Amino acid sequence: MDGVGNGPRVLVEFSFFGLFDVSISQTVLSSFLVMVVLLILSWRLGKGLQKRPTRRQVLVEKGVSILYDLVEDTMGKHNSRFTPFIGALFCSSVCGTLISLFGGVFRSTTADLSTTVTWALIVTVMVWYQNIKQNGFFGWLKGFTEPVAVMTPMNIISEIAQPISMSFRHFGNIAGGGVLTTLIYGALAAGSSLILSWVPNEIIRSIPFLQVGIPAFLSIYFDLFSGFIQALVFCMLTMVYVGAACPPPEETAA
Amino acid sequence: MELAKGLIAIGAGICMGIGAIGPAIGEGNAVGKALEGMARQPEVASTLRTNMILGCAITESTGIYSLVIALLLLFVF
Question: pTM for this structure?
Answer without folding.
Answer: 0.84
